[in-house]
Amino acid sequence: MRRHNSALVLGAIADSPGISRAGVAARTGLTKATVSSLVDRAIVAGLVVDGEPAHREGPGRRGTALTLSPAGPHGLGVEIGVDYIATCLVDLTGRVSRQRIRPADNRAQPANRVLVKVARAIRSVFSELPVVVGGIGVAVPGLVENSTGLLRTAPNLGWRDVDIPAELRDRAALADIPVLAGNEANFAALGEMWSGEHPELRDFIHVSAEIGIGAGIVMDGTLFEGVRGFGGEIGHLSVDAKGPQCSCGARGCLEAVAGQDAILAQSGVSDVPALVARLESGDRKALTAVRPVARYLGTALSNVVNLLDVPTIVLGGTYAALGPWLQEPLQEELTLRVVSAAWSPITILQSTLGTEAAIRGAATSAVRAIIADPDPFITATVPG
Amino acid sequence: MRRHNSALVLGAIADSPGISRAGVAARTGLTKATVSSLVDRAIVAGLVVDGEPAHREGPGRRGTALTLSPAGPHGLGVEIGVDYIATCLVDLTGRVSRQRIRPADNRAQPANRVLVKVARAIRSVFSELPVVVGGIGVAVPGLVENSTGLLRTAPNLGWRDVDIPAELRDRAALADIPVLAGNEANFAALGEMWSGEHPELRDFIHVSAEIGIGAGIVMDGTLFEGVRGFGGEIGHLSVDAKGPQCSCGARGCLEAVAGQDAILAQSGVSDVPALVARLESGDRKALTAVRPVARYLGTALSNVVNLLDVPTIVLGGTYAALGPWLQEPLQEELTLRVVSAAWSPITILQSTLGTEAAIRGAATSAVRAIIADPDPFITATVPG
DNA sequence: ATCGAATAGTTCGATGCCTAAACTTAATCG
DNA sequence: CGATTAAGTTTAGGCATCGAACTATTCGAT
Fold this sequence. Notes:
Two copies of one chain form a homodimer. Chain A is α/β, with parallel strands linked by helices. The first copy, chain A, contains 14 helices and 15 strands. Chain A has helices at 2-15, 21-28, 32-44, 111-128, 164-171, 184-194, 254-258, 260-267, 272-280, 284-308, 317-321, 323-337, 357-372, 375-381; strands spanning 48-53, 64-68, 74-80, 84-90, 96-103, 133-140, 143-144, 151-154, 159-162, 179-183, 204-209, 213-219, 222-224, 312-316, 347-350. Chain A has a five-stranded mixed β-sheet, sandwiched between helices. A five-stranded mixed β-sheet of chain A has the order 13-12-11-14-15, sandwiched between helices. Chain A has a three-stranded antiparallel β-sheet with strand order 7-8-9, with no helix packed on it. The longest helix of chain A is centred in the last third of the chain and has 25 residues, at 284-308. Chain A binds chain B through residues 1, 143, 152, 203, 217, 219-220, 225-234, 236-243, 248-250, 299, 302-304, 306-311, 336-337, 339-340, 343-344, and chain B through 1, 143, 152, 203, 217, 219-220, 225-234, 236-243, 248-250, 252, 299, 302-304, 306-311, 336-337, 339-340, 343-344. Chain A binds a DNA duplex through helix 3.
């Protein structure tokens, strides 16, 4: 009961920083008395601070502005990439207070060795900054089972069946700080949503092409992971029954025709910045190479939209860079294939966080977990 | 609080009929005292009956068997088909107590005229049987918006923007009996799950081919409808970029290559029973016609599974009839294309309810709504 | 047969959280 | 400077759950 209402109150403060106790009461349907008592507990626990009276029109006492405390627990994001380990700290308000990327050739190393390094990175964050870490989010390029938290397979790292939370808890002496591992494409989608750049973004697909093609699907502000957590594997949607062979064994997977490698091979360029330069200069070969990519991506996304009825698509990673050239043919394909497009068009946006989306999402997930269920943290901090 | 716990208790009784109060307490985590008081209210409201002491091993008093009351509120299912109106009554235990199909050429009629007939059918159920109707589910072959309950479009009926619940409430004088409208394919999936034939079925896709191809997606026992309710539109997934033109304007939609019309046209037979007869007799043309259907269906379903990570597929409607000939090539295609198939194979089942699935699902949805949130019904029935 | 152990269900007082309403504080407006 | 309006606090009261003691029922051992 109180647990649920604490979450309600914290959620209201997170959604509209600077809101007053009376405002929270109006929004949540609780009484002012209840809100007062719950807010007091949150303040004592260090989750909330009340600031200056906010200015308002007309007569009457001004409410004190409640905000999540920047000095409260932080979320630590860790991203295990193929050739780097990145860390990032985020406070309750969503502000990034520390970010660091360490190059590392993780592909050549077995999981335990890499996790030793990750643990060291985590401990170094702990020792360098005097903040309370309330949770850790670990983004990995692989499939994470949601019931167990196990990384089932990470093809590009060559890992299988690694219990990342358990390993890190042991190696970094984390006591009972919650650790959650997740797919990087999923975290990237959340990161983009929470970036604040697109305030209305609550139902969307975030697609990005890196080595594979990853997608994060968010519906009603919540990540959609499928039954076991292996959902959103958009890279192996079939877009051309007679298309080229994919590494997975099937034919015509999206990844095989619209992945980064396929794009670069088709356009005869060695990397993405070079491709963008050619596109900007109007190079005909580059332009004709990108068009079918958009078509294929559009076919795959149409399938997703027909199935999930999601109104918005966010282009991330390499697709964000190619956005200006993808947008139009993509829109055409979607309009043609999506059944509901006739009465509600699909919006296409470009990612603003780019490659930082995943780690921001991982770190912010950790703090959001506290906001979504603050009671454990509060009762651990406040004795009474 | 009590509302939530009442739902918990009723849910436990629905899940394991014959459970004792102590069993409910153990399963829900509530205390025996709380369960007793909640069960008493449910009994007074007529939702639950306690029966004979159940037999059990060992010493100790036997618990009284609690079951949902067959005399409690019933769910009324209505199906508005293209050429019939069907009604069906289901009690809280899931038993079907009355079923009736009235032929009617609804395609030729505007919506109001048809709804007048539907209202008459509903009133006739009310007058014929002395049962309390606790809710009505209406299955329609169209897209229903979940936020408003509006039928946005039903191509085969030629209807657009019809507020079925409101219309029926007026025309059939329903007072405040809740009415929920929904897509027939979705109701069919729920009907199949609740039929009791597949007890473990909680995560699956139910696909059926009638005039179009419909799918209902169930995850964690809950219908997945997409953001606005237009999800699961599997009929227009793209399975062959260069395939034939579909009525929707795009090319190579599943419906165009694996719908009932396409199957019959390919095999040169006039109806499904005839096709089944030919297949059984080993007719080569029929056999070679069905195989690509399975392939295409497999491609579309692989896309769905890769996206939603659903472990089971149930073949319904025409596909159920063709099940024996579809199963093998379908399984092959899924194994090839589904990324997670390597470590968790996809199960393919055949529907047991056939064409009755939708109406059963609609009726059962109405009673399940009461079980999922019994408090409104209880407080309306029990004064104190 | 009788007693004891085990299990089901009820009764009753205690607890905790929320609510309602009165009250205090703080601001605007005439 | 007092009336009015709104924010926030205090206090008394209510309701649902819990814990513990109690009754009821059954088996098995003496």
